[in-house]
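Reopening this one. Same input as before:
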Amino acid sequence: MTEFIPNKDNIQETTINNYKMPRILKMIALRGLVVFPHMSVSFDIARDKSLYALNKALEKDEQIFLVTQKHASQNDPAPKDIYRIGTICRIKQVLKMPGDTLRVLAEGVERAEIESYQSIKPYFEVALKEMPEDTSDPLLVEAMKRIAKENFEEYCRYDTKIVTDNFANINIETEPEKFVYAVGQYIYPKEGDRQKLLATNNLDKKLQMISESLVQEIEILKIKKKIDNRVRRQMDKNQREYYLREQARAIHEELGDGDEDLMDYVKKAKELKLPEEAQEKIEKEVKRLQKMSPTSPEASVSRSYIEWILDLPWNKTTQDNLDLKRAREILDEDHFGLQKVKDRILEYLAVLHLTKTLKGPILCFVGPPGVGKTSIVKSIARAIGRNFVSMSLGGVKDEAEIRGHRRTYIGAIPGRIIYHIKQAGTINPVFLFDEIDKMSSDYRGDPASAMLEVLDPEQNFQFRDHYLEIPYDLSKVMFITTANTTEGIHPALLDRMEIIHLSGYTEEEKFEIAQKFLLPKQIKNHGFKDVKIEIEPDAIYQIINNYTSESGVRGLEKNIAEVCRKIALEIVEENKKQDEFIITTQNLLDYLGAPKYRDHEISKEDEIGASTGLAWTAVGGKTLTVEVTLIEGGKGDIILTGNLGDVMKESCQTAISLIKARAKEWKIDVSAFGKTDIHVHVPEGATPKDGPSAGITIATAILSAFTKRAVSKDIAMTGELTLRGKVLPIGGLKEKMLAAKRMGIKKVIIPKDNEKDLTDIPQSVIEQLEIIMVDDVSSVFQNAII
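Same output, byte for byte:
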C-alpha cells in the first residue's frame, strides 16, 4: 500500500476574508456521500474519470470540488445526473489500496455551485460560483441556536450510541454552521436530506431544519425506548424469571436447604395461636421467600418482618394482683402524701377487679416537675404485678414514631409502641406516655392525631402499625400519661383522658419525703454501708427553705445528694475513720455553701404603690410583686412593662378604668388622671406573665399610688377583676396557697367563689394562713391598704 500526501504548503487556506475561490476546479462525483464544509470525510475512488481528476489536482496542488450524483447506481453520470451544489475540499491524504482503488481523506472548506462544465472527458472540470450571501436575521439566528442546542442535548439523553466527544469541540455560539453540519452528518442517513441541508443558504433555516429533525428523532427514540422496555419486561416476566425460579428451586432441592427453616416460621405461628390475619400474612410471606434467593435483599426484609410478628406477645399476659390492701401498702411505701391520687388509683383497680376489663378512661397525671408523676406509675405496675414500659413523647414530631414506617422504605421498622410492647413481653403491661404535652407536629405528620387511636378504648383493640400492616390488640394495655400542663395537649386527646392533678408538696410533706425516702436512697447510692449519715430536722427545713424553691422535691434530692458527695470526699480524701456524720444548721453551710434563697422573699416594710400577688406556673405557685409609679406632668398615658401577655394587659386597663370610675369614692382628684402617666411594672421582665388572676393585685397597687397609702407587706392576693368591681374565681388555688406559705405570707385574699377549693389544701397550710374571701374590690382595699 502506497501513501500519497499532497504538498500542503502550496494549498491555499480558505478563510472568509482573504481566500479567493478558484474559478476552475477538478470535480469528482461521489456515490451516496455528501461532503459538508468543516467536516473530514474518507472515501474510495476507482472510476477512471475520478482517478484522473484526483491526479491532476494533486499535480497542481489544487483543491478539488466534491459533489454528489443523484443516483448511486449510475457508473458514468452525465451533468444532469449530478447535483449543482457541492463542497470545495482540501486533499489531506491519499492511500493506494490493493487493485486500482485509491482511498482519499479530504476536508470540506466551503460550499460552491456549478456555473458551467469546462470539461467532461477525460475528467470533470467545472467553473464555480460563490454561494449567495447569508441574509439571516441575527435575533432569529440567536433564537434558533438556543432551540437547536436544547433539542440536541435532549436527543443525546435518549440516543445512547452517540459519541458526544465528537461534538465537544464545537461551540454552537461561535461556530453555528459547523454545529449544523456535524449534527446533520450524524442524524441524516439519506443523501437526499444531507444534500438539502447543504443546499440551504440562510443559517436560520439550517438551524430550523436541524431542530425539526431532532424533535422528530427524539419522538422516534422515545417510542423505541417504550417498545424496548415493554418487550424486555414481557421477556423477563414470561421467560427469564420463570427460568431462574425453576433453576433456584432445583438447586434448593438438590442441596436440601431453605424450606425447612421457612416451615419453622409457619409451625411457630400455629403454636403461638396467632390471629387469623397474622397467620395468613406469615404463610403468604413464607411462600414469597420460597421463590426468592436466600441472598437477595428482599429475602432479608421478609425474614425480618416475619420475625417481628412472631416475637410480639399475641396471647402472653401477666396475672393481675388486684389485692387493694397490698396495692395501698405499696403506694404508701413508695410515696408520701398524694392521698387523692392514691384513692383514684385504688378506685381504678377496684373497677378492674369487678369488670376484669380496662375499658375505662386513660389516666393522665398533671403536675409540676418533681412531684412524683412518673414514679407513681411505676408503683401502680408493681402493685398489680404487671410489666412496666415507658415512652417519652417530649420532642416527638414524626407520626412514624407512633405508627412505624411502611415496608416500602429501606430500613423500615415498627413504631415505638409496638417496639415497647415487644420489650414488655406481654400484651397487658403498664405503658407510660411521659411528657405527652411536649409533642409537636411538622411536615412529617401529627403524632398527636396518631395517638387518638392508641388511647381510645373503642379503637385500640385493632391498632394498625404501618410496618406490621395487621391489627394488634392494645385494649389490654394499661395506658397512663403524664404532663406538666394540659395547655399543650391536643383537645381531642385530652377528651379521651381523665385528668388527675398532682399539686406541689407542703413544707411538712417535703420534710417527711426527705427523711423517709430521699436521704435513705442517697445513703444507699453513695455506698455508706458502715457510716451513719443523719441530717437534723432543722437542717432539712433549712435546705427546703433556703436552698430550694420548687413545688416538687427534685431540687431537694439534689441538695441531699450534694451533702452525701461532700461526706464521701471527706472519707476518701482525708481518710476520716468516722462512724457517724451529723448535719446541723451550723455545719450545713460547709456542705452546701451560701443559701440560694432568702427565708421569705417579701418586702421588709409596707410600701406605697406595690402589692404582692399569687401566680400559677407549670412548676408550681409563686409570688409576684406589682409596682405602680405615677409620673406627674404627663398626658394620662399608660405604660405597661414586665413582659406582660395580652390578658394581663387587659387586666391593667380594667383596673385603671375602675379606679377612674370610683375616684370620688376613694377621694382621688379625677383631673389627676389626665395629667399623670401611670407606669405599671411586674419585676422579672425576662419571664413571660399572663392571665386575669392579677386583677385585684394591680388595682390595689394603683389605688395605693394615687392615695399615698401603703399596702401591707404581710398580705398576698389573687382574683380576677371586672369593671363593676366584682372579684371572680381563679384556678390553681392550691399551688398559690403553698407559694404564699413558702414565702412567709400571713394573710391571703381569695375570691369567695373559690371557697369550695379549700378542701384540696392541706390543713397545715390553712392553719398557718389567715384566709380572707371577698366578692368585691372594696373588701380587697379595706383589708390590704393601711
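So the earlier flakiness isn't reproducible anymore. For the record, The longest helix spans residues 203-255.
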